[in-house]
Amino acid sequence: MGIGHRTRGSDERPMGSAVITARAAATFEPVGRSVAAARAFVRDTLQGWGFPDIIDDAVVLTSELVTNAVVHAGTSADVLCVRTDEGVRIEVSDRYPERELPLQTPTRQFGGVDREGGRGLMLCTALAACWGVEYGATHKKVWFRLDLDDRPAGTRSAGPALPVEALPVADPRVRVAVVQIDGTGGISAWNDDAEHLFGYTADQVTGKPLADLAAWPHTPGTSTGIAEALRLSRWEGSYGIRGADGRVIPVYASHLRVRDNEGAPSTVCLLVRDEERAVLQSPPRSSGADASTDRGTAADPFEVFIGSPAPDDLDGLLQRTVERARDMLDGDAAYLLLATDDETELEVRASTGLPSARQRFARVPVEAGTGRYGSARLPSVHDDLNAVPGAVPLLTDTGLRSVVTVPLKVEGRLTGSLGVAAEAPHRYGNEEALRLQFAADRIALAVESARLGELERLRRGSLSFLVEASDLLAGTLDRDQTLALMAQMTVPTLATWCAVYTIADQSSEPELSYVLHEDEDLIDGLKALLAKVAPPDPVPTPGARIWTAPARAAHSEALRSSLRSVGLADVPESSPAPGVSLTTAAAVGGETVVLPLVARNRVIGMLTLGKPADDHFRQEIVELAEDLSRRAALALDNARLYSERTAISQSLQRSLLPPGLPDVPGVEVDVIYRAAGEGNEVGGDFYDIFPIRDGAYGFAIGDVCGTGPEAAAVTGLARHALRLLAREGFGGPAVLERLNAAILDEGARSRFLTLLYGELWPQQDGSALLKVVCAGHPLPLRLRPDGTVEPAADPQPLLGVMEDLELYEQPVTLDPGDVLLCVTDGVTERREGSRMLGDDGLADVLATCTGLNAGAVSARILRAVERFAAEPPSDDMAILAMRMPERPTE
């Protein structure tokens, strides 16, 4: 079962004093599309009952009430249409009786039309003859009744019977002024009625421009004046004529443009007093049902479409409209354009019989001028476009000769234009224009409603898109990843292909940094094509601008490829296959727009979006791309700044680390260093091994209080001071005492420091002599070949706390096969909950390292630290392992 199910029937039971003659019912599921289905059901039902006059009101009220049921109440909706001898009653029921309706009381008024609550009931009050609400145990029902107008059967148009005193006052004889205007706008004929009405004789006005006498109403926002109206094939409306006594006489006029036997054009104007307009005014056209009854024929195809359920989507509605318009006037092509919000441009949205892919979303200005759509605001008939080149820019070079266009207006506002064209000239006249205008008036409201709905959905989607894009762009500070995200967010959502140009500084030229196409096979060809095109100028002006260079280059490449394929040009052996260039041209040959990437008042690049051959961008998509470009520009600039500062930071940090481990004769040395914090290469822990003099080497491993840049600053001070003092010949205690003084001299920036410093002398017998000072640092551990682990020094005071230190150095001998392990507290204080690795745990791990070389020892210690807890280490960590190789047995 679809959205709803329907039942129809007839019933003679009375409803009050009325007699029910027919009924139709349907149930609709609680989904958004049910509202459109309910509208179609009511329209079909009333059309079938022969009540076209009340269809629009019934559909509007049903739409609001069904929306309340399926969207706001969240239940299914039952719609019942009842026909009586007095009118039509429509009932909408939902299954949520507990939800109270916002009824109007003296202390509680309905909200405005922009509010959701109470809007449907406010419409009932305005449109329905009567309405009410009924509550039951399982449902709630809102009903309304629409009465039928009393019209004599078979009458096309009639006014009410009025008493004699209510009829308009006229002279004993109704006078119709006949004025003829020549091709220059001057008066060439003036009849007696014109002389009687306005007081001028024919001799007084002949040759004068009608504009000198006419008081023309200038409508704001339009450029149509009396000169333009006189050039139209037909015009009807009100204006004023200044009489001989200076008074302005309101008149109603009907203009018809003709030509004489010699082909000279002129305009015949019939004028009556405005209160006598009924003499000239064209009667309002009756509904399609009435017209078809009078003619004795079926309604034309477009009117059949208007009476049928319209497609739910805007594109489907517009396409159906142009097809019906073409069929109605037996044309060869038809098109429909929608106006922008400011009514200054028209955008092609649907066409038939035209290259729609080439024209879709193309734009033309509304105002008059070469290549402009000057006839958008009024009905217009062009007998032969060859006689007026460029009158309808959309049809240029299409072979179509005659065209009739009419405006789509809602409440006096231009919302679009509908046109039908034929290949033969002189196909259309005023009668076809009236028929097409009648059809346009019937469809204008539905088109505008669907357009607003589409615009609202697009805006909601745009907000979601921008929120997601902002989250993605904010989630990375990597420049290359930011460029990739910019392209991937636009392709294929906004464009077929994308290219990002970046500008390093004000003196640099734009550089092609990233290219993406929805077809991955075309990316290389697109990149090669853009490399041959000069980049767009880095203009800081906000907004998108058209860039034609890629399309021209693509067409040029395609032409050369085609010539080579037919042997009309030399083909180098290294040239790609002709199909590659042709495919690339088709992919790039459409509209291309460039959006500047401006951040912190500087152009840092350009975002280029493109469409395939002969395709155009919608204005809404361009506006969305502009919003995205502003966010992307800031994200790209943040990534650039982060990359620059990261490079500076890493360069400075690397200067704090030893350039490399020296080759110590007869000693295996290995170091593992891990700095805590993302992007940090140096923290509060440090190490160093360096030659002091011939045969003597210094080594150190230390831990500055804290982590990050502040600790790294003390790290640099300590490492460089150790090297300098040791090479000046100071012993271990003297070196550390002077380093302690230097740290205290830093004042508020000083931090306490634990340090293990030693001097190493390798011996000829494979052993090594060491002198070490352990200033508050975790004690070094010595591993014997038999697995015995023991501390190799005693603890002494740390540095950076007291001015007077009494330190001493302790001798240590490493025999062949011995290992000396030095670590920072990031190793021993590794925790998981209340457990800590500690000195004992480290000794247990080291005891398992017998027979391993220095690199394997440090790797096993690191692995044990990492596996001790599930979370990654949060402290700086340094591991220094020195091993004396065992002498080979003879």
UniProtKB/TrEMBL annotation:
Classification via InterPro entries: Bact_Sigma-Reg, GAF, GAF-like_dom_sf, HATPase_C_sf, HATPase_dom, PAS, PAS-like_dom_sf, PAS_fold
UniProt keyword list: Hydrolase
Signal peptide coordinates: none
Stored CDD domains: HATPase_RsbW-like (cd16936), PAS (cd00130)
GO biological-process terms attached to the record: regulation of DNA-templated transcription
Alphabetized GO MF terms: phosphatase activity
Domain spans labelled PAS: 178-208
UniProt xrefs under PANTHER family: STAGE II SPORULATION PROTEIN E, STAGE II SPORULATION PROTEIN E-RELATED
Keyword Hydrolase among UniProt keywords: yes
Organism: Streptomyces mobaraensis (Streptoverticillium mobaraense)
The name this protein goes by in its record: SpoIIE family protein phosphatase
